[in-house]
Amino acid sequence: MDAHQESEVQEFNRLYKELDELYHDIALKLGISDSALAVLYTVCVQGDGCLQRDVCREAYISKQTVNSSVRRLEKDGFIYLEESTGRDKHICLTAMGKAFVEEKIRPILDVENGAFLEMTAEERTMFILLSRKYVKNFQRRVKKMLEELT
Q1: Is the pLDDT of residue 15 over 80?
Q2: Could you give the 3-state DSSP secondary structure of residue 83?
Q3: Domains of the chain (ranges plus CATH)?
Q4: What rounded mean pLDDT belongs to the chain?
Q5: pLDDT of 150 strictly over 90
Q6: Given the DSSP bridges, would you call strands 50-51 and 89-93 parallel, antiparallel or unpaired?
Q7: Average pLDDT of span 34-45
Q8: For site-directed labelling of 109, which of 3, 25, 98, 135 has its Cα 20 to 30 A away?
Q9: Which residues of 44-56 are buried (b: 16+ CB within 10 A; e: fewer)?
Q10: CA torsion sign, 68 to 71 to 76 to 81?
């Protein structure tokens, strides 16, 4: 890889981290942890009653982190848990949680959608295709690297 290509990868990584930092800033402003934001965001997108594993899958957060956040949000009165099959539990919003999600989390989705729609339809399609391609390439290379380490 030449210096220009390496610089491009570094720029991509900076942009990814900058985006991540924006969500961190939102969580700070809302007075919640990044993982609590991920839980409430997922409930907002998936709907009331989603499972903890849905949060893990959607937010790419460990079960332990999600469980800790869920316990904290439950203690703070934002959510309650309902039993499901097996060990699964549904995450349900309390009245306070519903109000918080509508007033504070839903606007995040609106901002995301607005920023995305500022691109043309062609740009949006290309952005998704190229992002998906990069992730698949990266996954394949990480898998190979990890196999070589063992």
Answers
A1: yes
A2: strand
A3: 3-104 (1.10.10.10)
A4: 95
A5: no
A6: antiparallel
A7: 97
A8: 135
A9: beeeeebbbebbb
A10: positive
